Amino acid sequence: MEYKDYYKILGVDRSASEADIKKAFRKLAHKYHPDVSKEKDAEAKFKDVNEAYQTLSDPEKKAAYDQLGQRREGSSFEPPPGWGGFGGASHGFEGFDFGGGGFDFADLFSHMGGGARAARPQAGEDLNAEVQITPEQAFNGTTVSISLREPEETADGRVRHVTKTLEIKVPAGTIDGQKMRVTGKGGPGYNGGPNGNLYITINIIEEGRFKVEGRDVYQTVPLADFEAVLGAEVVVPTLSGGKISVKIPAGAKAGQKIRIGGKGFPNKKGPAGDMYLLISIVVPPAPSDKVKELYQKIAEASKFNPRENL
Question: Would residue 46 be called left, alpha or beta, if left means φ above 0 and alpha means ψ between -120 and 50 degrees?
Answer without folding.
Answer: alpha
